[in-house]
Amino acid sequence: MKDASPQTIYLRDYTPFDYIVDSVHLTFRLSPAATRVSSRIAFRPNPATTTRQFFLHGENLRLIGAKIDGNAIDPEITATGLHCTAPDAPFVFEAEVDISPANNTALEGLYMSSGMYCTQCEAEGFRKITYYPDRPDVMAVFSVRIESDLPVLLSNGNPVASGDGWAEWHDPWPKPAYLFALVAGDLVNHPDTFTTMSGKDVDLNIWVRPGDEGKCAFGMEALKKSMKWDENVYGREYDLDIFNIVAVDDFNMGAMENKGLNIFNSSAVLASPETATDANFERIEAIIAHEYFHNWTGNRITCRDWFQLCLKEGLTVFRDQQFTGDMRGHAVKRINDAVVLRANQFREDNGPLAHPVRPASFVEINNFYTVTIYEKGAEIIGMLRRLVGPDAYQKALDLYFTRHDGDAATIEDWLRVFEDATGRDLTQFAKWYSQAGTPRVAVSEDYANGTYTLTLRQNTPPTPGQDEKEPLVIPVAVGLLNENGDEVVPTRILELTQAQQSFTFTGMASKPILSVLRDFSAPVILDHPQTNARRSFLLAHDTDPFNKWDAGRTLAQDVLVAMVRDGATPDAAYLDGLTAVLRDDALDPAFRALVLALPTEDDTAQALVDAGETPDPATIYDAHESLKLQIAQHMQDLLPRVYAAMTLSDAYRPDADQAGKRSLGNAVLGLLARCDGGRQAAAQYAAADNMTQQLAALGTLLKAGKGTAELIAFETQWHHDRLVMDKWFGLQVSCATPDQAAATAARLTEHPAFQMKNPNRFRAVLGALAGHAAGFHHGSGAGYNLLADWLIRLDPLNPQTTARMTSAFSTWRRYDADRQKMMRAALLRLADTPKLSRDTMEMVSRILG
After folding, report:
1. Could you say which DSSP state residue 518 is in?
2. Span 475-519, pLDDT tens digits
3. Which of 34, 326, 512, 835 has its CA 20 to 30 A from that of 418?
4. Contact 782, 824 (CB under 8 A)
5. Are 131 and 138 in contact (CB under 8 A)?
């Protein structure tokens, strides 16, 4: 077998596959160490190509034999696949291979999890199952036979036959190999049905390990809500007789949208009030919706190549954001989305891992399942909708589904339907897909003789491989207020298309107060100098919920930066404004909880970098702790009243109303603990009848330097529940003091329940350390060394999880020389590891630059 070194793949080099696949028949004879996979694939020459080369992807396969039209062949086998001569006419290729699911710790292809066989084929896992053109533009109808003594045997599509020890499935809809799925195990189902808008009954199942049946009801209701919402909002109806979801403990991602057989990380589907928090319930609802929505935006219409990944993911994220907004409230959802984007995607755009929403090249596609592809991709869809309007957006989507059903589409196809539906030229807008980086928009104002002039200037800083940037089309939503807080100009969209533009508003009785980038109308960073008094005014009076929240957020950031620089005391305007929001019972409790939350320590570090300063994680941590204490002292008379008002006596419900109240109550609990030493938190822990309240109380106690007895009691109570124990592991690291964070994580890796092969457990400990800014960046370098040690150990087993967690080092250049030296040394240790995976090597190389 010949070896192949990793190669860079370029968008510009795309060519279609030389053959069309008409049908695929697969037979699996399951065995942990030696599963036999037989394939029978009907090929014919692709008339769109002029030359013919027959190459099938395949990795870690033992070929038993291969045939073309019934005649045995002797193909050339390489590390990446199979070559042979093929007829220039329709033919049938057959192959028989052996694979070892039990030894597949990478969790790609066919592998085993707690005695269950399951698959993960996106992006390139199918090539670890059998020889096949494993690329998204090759779509075919699949028929599957599974042979095993396990009681439940599942695959894509509809069941067509079964007997003792076997089952057959047929998926009538052509699909790429990355959507193939198989599950076999000793499972039980939570069943239900859904009647589509055309009157067709669909069988629904959530399949789980015995003992988890009681955690399926919420997920099933979320699925039915998603199916109904997609019919009502997008006119999309489900197209098979059955829809199956399977919960799997060992899974690298959140979930996978395989046609008719969605496979979920257990944490993304299993929930009960006793074991899941409000945040878990909301996440489960959103992920189930996301994977279901992929049935049309991803499955029926897939992507031509992996450079188009943002087409299916960005659009589907936007759709699940719309869904969650409809289910739980758009204002709070929009703020939460902006928090995630600013904390993660802006950071990615501002560092060595910056890349366009549609990359021009990659070495390992698994490294591009990023917040840029998903969340920034969704923001582009949202901007497009704002620019053309909701009606035109819907018209364009209807055309997209009609024109491209059954296609492997591109970004150009997507934009063309909007141009055809609206008559709008989107040439400049398309640059959002090819240009990396977060645009900065500077704001200046002028007022004279009743005319208000708003001037906007845009600039996108250089990113790796892109020094020169062109102006983008940026929809900037603005509103104007008077001194009483009344709107004198309601929200309107200004289109910023040039490097600098001015917009005038006439007939103003006095200089208005600007509310700019309402509803976070574009993923940009605003440079808008304002006094604390003006921001306090917007916090009190802005009619746009996002900008009302953002005014408080910006005030808090300014206060924190000042405290870091010279130990300044918090601005009274900020504390008074925060108190006014907390006191205002007319405001949504979930919104008030968001206003109370401070920017993250990483946000503050970036603010200092933006100001040309070198952040010190320890000083930032101290400033955050000091500000929280002073907020608590400033509000100490108000906090008990609000906490009592948010205490619920009704039975637990994971809906937006109750969740918002618990969110505010627990935010207040954290402040109360700084005044009462954790007394109220201990009482809440003792009385808690749901995981939201229990976990919040335990975390509050740990942060207060208490909770030892409760931590032991929690483990005793929940040691049998793997998902709750993930919370127990992670909470200890995230609540540790900076000087103890690495030591706490190291101690937990020695716990008998720590399993490095399980991505959820590994992330619970080492991911929590990477997310503890002051702990990970402690001056001792212990955090850097510990994470590097474990990534080196994990890489041979699970390259995908390893590579993604190297991003913890991506900000290494922002810190002082000593920390830079230690982080660079950790990265070089990784890079020098023998047989380092191409996944991790690509990430380390990009981070090091």
Report:
1. G
2. 999 999 999 999 999 999 999 999 999 999 999 999 999 999 999
3. 326
4. no
5. no
- Joined together, the tokens standing for residue 438 give 């977060």
| 351: confidence class by pLDDT, cuts 50, 70, 90 | very high
Asked whether residue 3 carries a pLDDT value surpassing 90, the answer given is no
pLDDT band at 6 (very low <50, low <70, confident <90, very high): confident
Stretch 522-536: mean pLDDT, rounded? 96
Cα–Cα distance measured from residue 546 to residue 337, given in angstroms and rounded to the nearest whole number: 11
**Alpha carbon separation from 274 to 94, 270, 695 (Å, rounded):** 51, 11, 10
Neighbours of 12 (CB within 10 A): 7
Report whether 575 contacts 568 (CB < 8 A): no
Taking all residues of the chain, what is their mean pLDDT, rounded to a whole number? 97
How is residue 78 annotated by DSSP? Answer: B
Closest CA to 808 of 755, 745, 739: 745
With a pLDDT cut of 90, the percent of the chain lying above it is 99
Q: What are the E-state strand segments in 285-439? A: 302-303, 361-362, 408-409
pLDDT at 2 over 80: no
Q: Are 383 and 521 in contact (CB under 8 A)?
A: yes
- Tens of pLDDT, residues 211-270: 999 999 999 999 999 999 999 999 999 999 999 999 999 999 999 999 999 999 999 999
Strand residues in 309-400 grouped as ranges (E): 361-362
Question: Could you please report the per-residue DSSP string of 27-58?
Answer: EEE--SS-EEEEEEEEEEE-TT-SS--EEEE-
466 confidence band (pLDDT: 50, 70, 90)? very high
Taking residues 587-600, report their average pLDDT.
Answer: 98
DSSP 416-478: HHHHHHH----TTTTHHHH--SPPEEEEEEEEETTEEEEEEEEE---BTTB-------EEEEE
Taking residue 720's Cβ as centre, other Cβ atoms within 10 Å add up to 8
pLDDT exceeds cutoff 50 at 785:
yes
Residue 85 is given by DSSP the state -
Host H or E run for residue 385: helix 377-388
Helix (H) or strand (E) holding 207: strand 201-208
Q: Parallel, antiparallel, or unpaired: how do β-strands 19-29 and 140-147 relate?
A: parallel
Cβ–Cβ under 8 Å, residues 380 and 432: yes
Q: What share of the chain is helix, strand, coil (3-state, %, to 5)?
A: 45, 20, 35
Pairing mode, strands 302-303 and 487-496: unpaired
* Amino acid sitting at position 749: T
**Among residues 352, 466, 344, 341, which one has the least CA distance to residue 811?**
352
CA distance 287 to 266: 12
Torsion of CA 637, 641, 647, 648, to 10 degrees: -170
Average of per-residue pLDDT across 188-203? 98
Q: How far from 76 is each of 54, 85, 93, 486, 673, CA to CA, in Å?
A: 11, 10, 15, 75, 68
Which SS3 state, helix, strand or coil, does residue 376 take? helix
Rg of the chain's alpha carbons, rounded to an integer?
28
CA dihedral 646, 648, 654, 657 (to 10 degrees): -50
Mean per-residue pLDDT for 533-562?
97
How far, CA to CA in Å, does 180 sit from each of 32, 38, 131, 252, 291? 19, 15, 14, 17, 14
Contacts of 333 (CB under 8 A, 6+ apart): 321, 324, 325
Residues 6+ apart with CB under 8 A from 655: 328
Q: Report CA-CA distances (Å) from 445 to 451, 454, 456, 519.
A: 11, 5, 9, 20
Instruction: Please give the pLDDT value at position 319.
Output: 98
In the numeric block, the tokens 């989507």 are attached to 397
Tokens, residue 824: 């660079």
Provide the annotated active-site residues: 291
Taking Cα atoms as reference points, which of 197, 198, 190 lies closest to residue 216?
190
| Closest alpha carbon to 319 in 231, 387, 238, 259 | 231
